[in-house]
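Lay summary. Proteins are chains of building blocks that fold into shapes, and those shapes determine what they do. In this project we predict the shape from the chain. Here is one chain we studied, written as its sequence of building blocks.
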Amino acid sequence: MAIGQKLAEARDRMNITQEQLALGINYSTSAVGKWEKESRRMPKHMFSQVAETVDDVEFYFETWSEAAGEVAIPFFNGDHVDHHPSSMAFLVKKETSEAIDQINRVCWAKPIHTRTDTEKEEIQRLIFELLDAAASTINLVAIVCREYRFSMRKIFQQWRITLKARRLQK
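And here is the predicted shape, written in a compact code that computers can read:
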């Protein structure tokens, strides 16, 4: 589904009119309508401003994907996903446990240039397990934010401050 349709759905979920969004991003209501109808593409430089104004967890995933292509964590919306926080927490525990198991299987002391093809495949399995754990975790964050009506944008802003305080980010 195209980004315009996703925007319309996000606006509906957040009870924001096209007029309110247009005011929030300093664009015309007509432009917002055209983006949603896909008669005009939303400019990429507007993705973050629109996402922050709408502040919908699913739309954050969409704009991430639109901006970064395949290098983005998807929102879990498949048939086998239960969005209840306890179900998502169970998924995080399962995926994280599998990732830790895979981390423990890898020999970290061996130099990269000496690894066999089998060992490189093991590293690739590790990467997939880590991505599964990361994706389930960020999806749990989104679901909890939505459930408790926390602004995901504000949560991330506060979290980034803690990263800087812990010197994990400049």
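What the prediction tells us: The longest helix spans residues 117-148.
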